[in-house]
Amino acid sequence: MNGQMAYMENNFDKRLNPTLLVDDAKSVISLLLNYYPSEFQNTDTYKISKYAYGQDYHFVIKDKLNELLASIQSTIGEVSGRAFVDSAPILDKAWAAKSGLGWIGKNSNLITQKVGSFYFIAELIIDLELEYDNSTTDHCGTCTSCIDACPTQAIIGPYIVDGSKCISYFTIELKENIPNEMKGTFNDWAFGCDVCQDVCPWNKFSKQHNEPLFNPNPEMLSMSKKDWKEITEETFNSVFKNSPLKRAKFNGLKRNINFLD
């Protein structure tokens, strides 16, 4: 159910065995970094997923992980390891759940009781044995809010998401034209989609992040539909410099907006 994301089929052995990613690996350290914003877009505009409000998380988090690894090495001594932020075939959510950071909810996102799910997941894999944490319990209960709210019915059953039906897939990963049969189902989402997180009751406990690099460009927050439709490549490169929107590229974003129009 991965659509054209063929890379997800590769390196299955490495996804299951971290020692194929880091020699003599003994521990996976899973970490979460909050990205829930304090300011939001205008309500009547084309919508951008909240994870993409600020700078590209890959670079922000990788720097933090390298600092953490250096700190471990300076405190403990010779420790070999590697930092991961969506940069290798690794089961981020599975390792985070196994470490007790949360449970994988019916929308397939990692959910925490205290602060919801608006978090990036990253890892350090190191060759040091640690005192290991245990997984927590599932707290979705009988709730089906995410399943009921998904605009494209991509959550085809509890804990099962058809990635090829997800708005995030269509607006970010798909390189071809968006299929006409999806017309009218995107609810103005131009890059990504937060619906299954926005309706999750646990996200009532979301707290504002304190990472300045995740703060949005004020120009982006105030953009109207007209502004989005008329955006030039020069403006795109200026407003969204170092932004996750660069993954869709200017032409991809224009395609998405034209599809919504």
Number of helices: 10
Question: How far is it from the N-terminal to the C-terminal residue, by CA?
Answer: 28 Å
Radius of gyration: 19 Å
Which parts are unreliable, with pLDDT below 50 for 5 consecutive residues or more?
none
Shape: globular
Q: How is the biggest beta sheet arranged? A: 3 strands, antiparallel
Q: Can you give the mean pLDDT?
A: 95
Structural class: alpha+beta
Total beta strand runs: 9
| H and E string | HEEHEHEEEHEEHEHHHHH
Oligomeric category? single chain
Fraction of residues in H or I helices: 25-40%
- β-strand percent reads 5-15%
Spatial strand order of the main sheet: 1-6-3
Task: Explain this structure.
There is one protein chain. The protein has helices at residues 12-16, 57-76, 92-98, 145-149, 167-173, 195-198, 218-222, 225-229, 233-239, 249-260, and strands at 27-34, 47-48, 81-84, 103-104, 110-111, 119-126, 155-157, 160-161, 189-191. The strands form 4 sheets. A 3-stranded antiparallel sheet has the order 1-6-3, sandwiched between helices. The protein is built from 10 helices and 9 strands. The protein is globular and about 55 Å long. It is of the alpha+beta class.
List the helices and strands and how they pair.
Blueprint: H1 12-16, E1 27-34, E2 47-48, H2 57-76, E3 81-84, H3 92-98, E4 103-104, E5 110-111, E6 119-126, H4 145-149, E7 155-157, E8 160-161, H5 167-173, E9 189-191, H6 195-198, H7 218-222, H8 225-229, H9 233-239, H10 249-260
